[in-house]
Amino acid sequence: MTKILLINAGSSSLKWQLVTMPKERVIASGQVERLNLPGTIVKVAVNGKKTKEVVETLDEITAIDRVLKRLVTVGGVKTLDEVQAVGHRVVAGGTVFKEAIKLTPSRINQLQGLSELAPLHNPLEVRCIELLAQRLPGVPQYAVFDSSYFHGLPEKTAIYGIPYEWTKKYQIRRYGEHGISHQFLAARAAEQLDRPLSELNLITMHLGSGASITAVKQGQPFDTSMGMTPVTGVMMGTRSGDVDPSLVPYLMKRLSLETPEVVIQELNASSGLLGVSGVSSDMRDLHTAAKDNRRAQLALEMFVNQVVKLVGAYYTEIGGADALVFAGGIGEKDADIRAAIIDRLAVLGIQLDPELNTIGAEGPLQAKASSTAILLIPTNEELAMARDVWGLVSDEVVVK
């Protein structure tokens, strides 16, 4: 039995699990929500007992230290020496890393070198890796990549309409993100529909502070909303989503900037729901503010519209869908956003059951007359990560 600590550091939250492998038993789990925002929420579950506290603002590093402390104090482990491996979700592996790896100093440096592909994520994830190396010295660490799932995209959806020589020489392509989640959602949808995944067309929606949508055709990823970096696709908590690339040099001139870094940073960290609303990057705050704040309402409307636009495009691109899948913090917990999205898709014959949607339990949400199934599936990136990490750990045990 091997105890593996899984760290999933996102743009606004940090999720974690301590699992035993190969039995896939979760000893303890938790989530830190509203990172870098006032009123950070810390949730922990151990043996069915759940606790929740609201604390002053935590960043990712202080959140990890709190997780390690809680692991011992709430009974996940007696001492941290019981942790035998650590697995990290890493967003961008580029063309360098196409599958899960064991981390070494040289590979950590390579990850740092890929920061341009995920400026909000890779540097953060490297800092988390380095911190865990300090806190758990000698414990092997592993990386599982979001981008791995999308290496098989067909070329017609994977590359951009730029000179083909640039595509090949500079490895410019749609890497996609949230791949760990989308792969899990597709497999889980096949289980819920009781059909082979290879027969299914699906549209999986990972909607949270980071949001992405993926078209799955006959069980394989066919298209996805995020591109070479995670700033593209639908607007997100702080990321702009798709913008005209000419916006970058235009703003450089208007702001008297000599390099594009400031604009790129603003598109990543000060745009999206936060930038439009001027209120918050958190959907819960926007629902509250929207009653009296037109910009907050506008941000909600824009988010819904952009999701609908992509889902409609993917629906035709893959020749119809057997199911739409909602996941992520917004997709799983926000019944109003789900209803607004499906209402706009009524032209496709897709209908939501209002009662099932309000209950919001895992499983089908569609009305009987719906042309397409609608599934709510809480994503479990940590389980998918655990399986990949265990594959590497068990191989090392066999070799020894």
From TrEMBL:
Which Pfam family, giving just one, matches this sequence?
Acetate_kinase
Assembly, in brief, is: Homodimer.
Q: Please give the NCBIfam families that the UniProt record associates with this protein.
A: ackA
Pathway, per record: Metabolic intermediate biosynthesis; acetyl-CoA biosynthesis; acetyl-CoA from acetate: step 1/2
Q: Which GO terms describe its biological process?
A: acetate metabolic process; acetyl-CoA biosynthetic process
Q: What are the protein's GO molecular function terms?
A: acetate kinase activity; ATP binding; magnesium ion binding
Keyword Translocase (UniProt)? no
* HAMAP family assigned: Acetate_kinase
Protein name per the record: Acetate kinase
Q: Which reaction does it catalyse?
A: acetate + ATP = acetyl phosphate + ADP
Which residues are involved in binding Mg(2+)? Answer: 8, 381
**Where does it sit, as one GO cellular component term?**
cytoplasm
Q: Does the keyword Protein biosynthesis apply?
A: no
The residues listed in the UniProt record as binding substrate, with positions renumbered to this chain, are 89
Q: Which cofactor does it need?
A: Mg(2+); Mn(2+)
